[in-house]
Design brief:
It contains 14 helices and 19 strands. By secondary structure, the chain is of the alpha/beta class. The chain has two domains: 26-386, TIM Barrel (Alpha-Beta Barrel), CATH 3.20.20; 410-489, Immunoglobulin-like (Sandwich), CATH 2.60.40.10. Strand 13 and strand 14 form a beta hairpin.
Length: 491
C-alpha cells in the first residue's frame, strides 16, 4: 500500500510544470547592491545589530513579493563582504577598508535567505578596484600596494589591467575561494568588464598590449580576448571546485546593433557589449562558459532606440542552451520620471507579462532591492495580484552537474494549540524543502504552484490557524542544484 501511494505521488509530481498561469519554476530575483551603500548596509559604520536587522528587513520584504533569489554584491571594488584571505573587507561596511564587522555578511545572507526559501547568487566585479581615486580608501594591505603595475586608472576609477595573465589568475583565485567556502547557487557578474568609455580618453592599456599581445594585432580583438580568457578561466575554476555552482552574466542589454552585425538586434543603442565593453556574450553562451544570462533591459516597451519587447525576443532567440532571465529596471519608476512610461509600476507589470509570453525566457531579475522597500504596496499589490501570487521554485540550470536529492526520510504532523506542527528528517543531498498543502483528502497536483505553501532550509515548520481537518501536507527536498525529490506525505 505504501509503495502504491508513493507511486501516485510521483506520477502527480511529474505532470507538466508549465500548465498553469503561475509557473512552478521561474527565476524571481532582486539585486542587493552594496556599492555606495545602495541597498545594504544603508550607510557605513552601523553596529552589527543594526546591519543584521537591515539585512533581515530586506529579505522579509523581498519574500513578501514571493521572490525566490537574491543577487548579493560581495566584491564591488576588489574588496570583500565575506571572509577573504585575498582582499580586505569593504570600506562600505564599517567605514574603513580592512576592518570587518563582527559577523560574516555573506554567511548571514545565506542563512537568512535560506530560512525564507531563497537562493543566493554572489555578485562580483572582476576589474574595478577603487570607484573614486580622489578619496583615500584602500587599506595598506591591498594588493594595489604590493603590485601597482597590475593596475591602471581611467577617469576617476582604478582597475585591474585586463591585459595581464596575473590579473586573470588573481581574480580566478578569488572566485575559487568563495566557491569552496560558501554554499551558494551561483557566481554572478554584471556589465562592468572594460569600463564604459569616457569621451576623449583612451583606456590606458597600451603597455599591456605591447607586453602580452599574444597573436593579436588589433587592440579591440585583443581586449575581447582578454575578457574571453577570464570568463573561461572563472568557469574552469568553478567547475574544478564545485561543478554544481552556476556561473551567470548580467550584461548591458544590447550585444550589437543590427547595423554593425546581421546577427545583432534591431536597435540603435549608443553602447554595445561587443564594441564598447569588449564582452562577447554570445560566444560565452555558445561555448558553454556560462549557465545563464540576464540582459539588463532597462528600457520601456516601445522605446524607439532599444525596445524592451524587441530585445526580450532577441535574447530568447539567442539562448544557445543557457537560461535567460530578463533584467528589469524598477529603479526608474518615479512619479516625476521624464518618460511617462516609468511614472507607475504598470510598466514592470506589463514587462513581466510580456516576458512570460515569450518562449524560452526563464524568469526575471529586478534592480534593485531598495525599490521594493521604497514602493511598498504600490509595487507589491500589482505584482502579487497579477504575476507573483504563488511561490515559485528557481529554474534548474542546463549545464551544471545536477545533484539528485533523496526524499526526506520521514515527515510527521501534529496539532497543538490551534497550530499545525510539521517536522521532517533530511535525506541525502537535501538543501531546502518544499512544503505542499492540499485540501483535506485531495492530494492532487504537485506541478501546480498554487499548492506550494512554503520553501525553507529548516526541518520544522509551524503553520498557524490550520486545522488538520482541512488540509493534507507533503514535503519534497531540493538539492543544491535545485533538483527536486519525490514527495512524501506528512502523517
Amino acid at each position: 500500500m505504501k509503495s502504491i501511494k508513493l507511486l501516485i505521488l510521483v506520477l502527480l509530481f511529474q505532470t507538466n510544470l508549465f500548465s498553469q498561469e503561475s509557473p512552478k519554476r521561474e527565476m524571481r530575483a532582486a539585486w542587493i547592491s552594496t556599492v555606495d551603500n545602495i541597498d545594504w548596509p544603508s550607510k557605513p559604520g552601523l553596529s552589527d545589530t543594526e546591519m543584521r536587522a537591515e539585512m533581515i528587513t530586506i529579505l522579509d520584504n523581498l519574500r513578501s513579493y514571493n521572490l525566490n533569489t537574491v543577487v548579493f554584491q560581495i566584491r564591488p571594488t576588489a574588496d570583500a563582504y565575506y571572509k577573504s584571505t585575498k582582499e580586505p573587507a569593504s570600506h562600505w561596511i564599517t567605514g574603513n577598508q580592512g576592518i570587518a564587522p563582527g559577523f560574516d555578511p555573506l554567511q548571514l545572507m545565506i542563512d537568512e535567505a535560506g530560512k525564507r526559501g531563497m537562493s543566493v547568487h554572489v555578485w562580483l566585479n572582476p576589474y574595478r578596484v577603487q570607484k573614486d581615486t580622489t578619496k583615500e580608501v584602500l587599506a595598506k594591505t591591498h594588493l594595489y600596494f604590493k603590485k601597482p603595475d597590475l593596475f591602471l586608472t581611467y577617469g576617476k576609477t582604478r582597475y585591474f589591467n585586463p591585459g595581464y595573465k596575473e590579473t586573470r589568475d588573481f581574480v580566478s583565485s578569488v572566485v575559487g575561494e568563495i566557491v569552496r567556502n560558501y554554499d551558494i547557487q551561483a557566481i554572478h557578474m554584471d556589465d562592468y568588464f572594460y569600463p564604459y568609455k569616457i569621451a576623449g580618453q583612451e583606456f590606458p592599456d597600451q603597455i599591456a598590449f605591447e607586453k602580452e599581445p599574444r597573436q593579436f594585432k588589433d587592440k579591440d580583438d585583443w581586449r575581447r580576448n582578454n575578457v574571453d580568457l577570464i570568463i573561461k578561466q572563472i568557469r574552469d575554476t568553478i567547475t574544478a571546485n564545485k561543478p554544481e555552482v552556476e556561473f551567470g552574466i548580467s550584461p548591458f542589454g544590447v550585444w550589437r546593433n543590427k547595423s554593425k552585425d546581421s546577427d545583432g538586434s534591431n536597435t540603435v543603442a549608443g553602447v554595445t557589449n561587443y564594441d564598447d565593453l569588449y564582452a562577447n556574450i554570445l560566444k560565452w553562451q555558445k561555448e558553454n562558459w556560462i549557465d545563464y544570462v540576464t540582459p539588463q533591459l532597462y528600457w520601456h516597451i516601445g522605446f524607439d532606440r532599444a525596445d524592451f519587447e524587441v530585445l526580450t525576443k532577441w535574447w530568447a532567440a539567442h539562448k544557445y542552451g543557457a537560461n535567460v532571465y530578463i533584467g528589469h529596471g524598477e529603479y526608474k519608476i518615479s512619479k516625476t520620471a521624464k518618460e511617462v512610461e516609468w511614472r507607475s509600476p504598470d510598466q514592470i507589470v506589463k514587462q513581466i507579462e510580456l516576458t512570460r509570453a515569450v518562449p524560452l525566457i526563464d524568469g526575471s531579475m529586478h534592480f534593485t532591492a531598495n525599490v521594493f522597500k521604497r514602493m511598498g504596496d504600490t509595487l507589491r499589490k500589482p505584482i502579487i495580484q497579477k504575476h507573483y501570487k504563488h511561490i515559485a521554485l528557481t529554474p534548474e540550470a542546463n549545464r551544471i552537474t545536477r545533484i539528485k536529492p533523496q526524499p526526506p526520510i520521514s515527515a510527521s504532523i501534529a496539532q497543538k494549540a490551534g497550530k499545525t506542527l510539521l517536522d521532517w528528517k533530511p535525506g541525502a543531498n537535501n538543501q531546502k524543502y518544499v512544503i505542499y498543502r492540499f485540501t483535506k483528502g485531495k492530494l492532487t497536483d504537485f506541478s501546480n504552484a498554487e499548492n506550494i505553501y512554503y520553501v525553507t532550509t529548516a526541518t520544522k515548520l509551524e503553520v498557524p490557524n490550520a486545522s488538520l481537518k482541512n488540509y493534507t501536507y507533503a514535503v519534497t527536498a531540493l538539492s543544491p542544484t535545485q533538483t527536486e525529490s519525490a514527495p512524501i506525505q506528512f502523517k
